[in-house]
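pinned: reference chain
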Amino acid sequence: MKKIILSSAALMSLAACGSTSQPAPIAFDDPVYAQAMDTGESAFDLKRYKVAMSEYRTAGQQALKRDDGPAMAEAGYNLAVSQLAAGQPQDALKTVQDVSQTLLIRHDTSVVSLKLVQAAAYYQLKNYTQAIEDAAAPMAEADKDLAGRAALIMGLAGYDSGDNAALQRAYTRLHNMKKPVSVSVLADKKEIEALSLIKTNPAQAMSLAREVADLRRDEGSYNEMSRALALAARAASISGDHAGAASLWARAAQSAAAQSGSQMQKDADQWGQLAGGVLLHPLAPPAQ
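pinned: its C-alpha cells
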C-alpha cells in the first residue's frame, strides 16, 4: 500500500493511503480489509471523500474484528485524513482521539503520524498555537516526508499567527534536511522559505512561490498550487507589482473555485476580490 502524506487541501489533506512511519499491518492479508483500503485510496485520489471515509470505516471495523492495532491505526489515520480533505477538522480530531484510545488499550502509543493529522486539524481550525505544538514531534522524525509535512504546518501556523520563532524552526528543519528529498518536500521547503522572505525580499519570495506553484502542479496537488499562487500574489503586491499581483490573485481564485470544499470556495471568493474581480467559472454551463 502507498503511504498517505499530508498535503494541504484546506489545510491539510493527504494523498495516497496508509499511515506514515508504520510497518504494513498484518491485516493487509485480510481480503476484506485490503479491499476496503484499496477502494478508499482510489476514492480519495478522485476526491470522493465521502466514499473514502466509508471504506476506511469498513477497514477499521475489520481491524477491530481481528484485534489488530496497527491495522486500526492505518485505517483510522486514513479516515482522519479524508475528513481533513473534506473540510471536517472537528471530525478528524474525534477520529484521532478514538483511534488513540483504541491503541492505548493495546499499549501502543507510537503512532506519531496521528499527531501530524491533529496538527493539521488544529491549523484548519485556526488554533495555531496547538497546531505548532502538535507538529513538533512529527517534525523531528527521520521520515523526511512526514517531517516535511509537519514543518510545513508549523511554518504556516507560525506565519499566520506571527510566531516568527515557529516559522524559523520550520525553515531550519527543511533547510537542513539531507538530500534527496521528494518533490513534495522540496515544494514545502521553498514555500516556507518564501514566507520567511516575504517581508524583507518580496521579489525573491514571489519567485520562490512561483516555483512552488509549478512543483505542486506537477505532482497534482492543485489545492496547494492555488495557495502558492496566492502567496506569489501577496509577494508581488508587497513589492509594488500590482498588475502582476492582480493576475496571480485571479489565477489562484479560478483554480480554487474549480475545486471542491467550502474552504476552497471561500478562498476563491477572497482571492477574486483581491484580483479586483474575476470570472471564477469561465467554462460553467449557462444558468437555466
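why pinned: The beta strands are 4-7, 13-16. The domain at 28-110 is CATH 1.25.40 (Serine Threonine Protein Phosphatase 5, Tetratricopeptide repeat).
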